[in-house]
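Deliverable D5.2: sample structural annotation.
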Amino acid sequence: MKKTRILYLHGNTFLAGAEKSLLMIADNIDKELFEVFFALPGGGAFNSELNKRGIKTLNISYPRIRALVGVKGTLGKLAVFIKENEIDILHGNDLRTNLFAWLAGRKTGRQVVWHMRNLIYNEKIDLERLFSFLPDAIYCNGSNIASRFDLFGKRPAKVKVIYTGIDSSNYKDSAERWKFREEFKIGREDVVFAVIGRISLGKGHDDFIRAAAEVAGFIPSARFFVVGGSMSAEDRAVESEMRNIATWLIPEGRVIYTGFRKDMEKIMQLVDVLVLPTHAEPFGRVLMEAMSCGKPVIGTNTGGTPELLGNGGAGILVRPKNPSELARAMRLLAGNEGLRMTLGSEGRRRAEEIFDIKICIKKLQTEYRELLENE
């Protein structure tokens, strides 16, 4: 049987949530039935990871389509790569690569998938919805994202919800979790709250720090981890403000900044409660990682977070931009180990039964096959 060949068009080379999800697909897709390729700019951590796996890549730039400059050259290179490697499906991953995937698919007669990972707010024009008649299929990370394409309460048949998967076996709670705490001089009696991810505007790090300041005054054993760092000048300004707030409001040594970490499985072990204070999170990968490790979650009642947590079954939902409400939830969990265990257990169940990569990959493969059968 001929393998189905998928070309993923991607515009970034750093390694964040979307890139980790694509690597999970590359690692877990059935190699006897499928072969994956990537077209993306050169350099960066994401390219390095693809190279380690021996995945064939085309290093290419994706210029602004409206500017026209360079568009013809990019499409020409894509067309040659598609034909030489007998690609069957083009899979775009953001607005620009989605449009390039459609243009290249039209040029070469291939099926085209658009992947949706983001929410669109009222002040923006949803161009992907506007042009949703172009691709052959649209895959969305969650129901909230898929609702972007609903028309008069009905969802087009081409729009599918396929969850981002994680390998839940990598995040099981470990008996060595106490040993992991030693690196940061965290005691067994301490309750560790952590916010994990890139520090940037809208991620709610300032809300976390303000909430932590309220909690710190009541619970001496509480410790607050900020795992991640800033990547741009704008991000660095956000981080600087967050650190200033912490310096003024929280006793020294109670907030621990780890910077970016590659050993997330280890970090998750020392955490007692994950906090996701984002103003609007499409579908937080870090939530699934925490749930897989049996950790309770406090998340904002926005975007895909309620869907991930089973509307609160695996955590506590709070209003965004509300440090006081966040602090109350943190205090509740800090003082109730039984509740932490109950929420964590339900999170673990959901991670294994709904979000495990094997389940998600199986659905993705089925959709790819049906796409080609119906062309």
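Annotation notes: Residues 4-165+356-373 form a domain with the Rossmann fold fold (CATH 3.40.50.2000). The chain has two domains: 4-165+356-373, 168-353.
The annotation will be released with the project's public dataset once the embargo ends.
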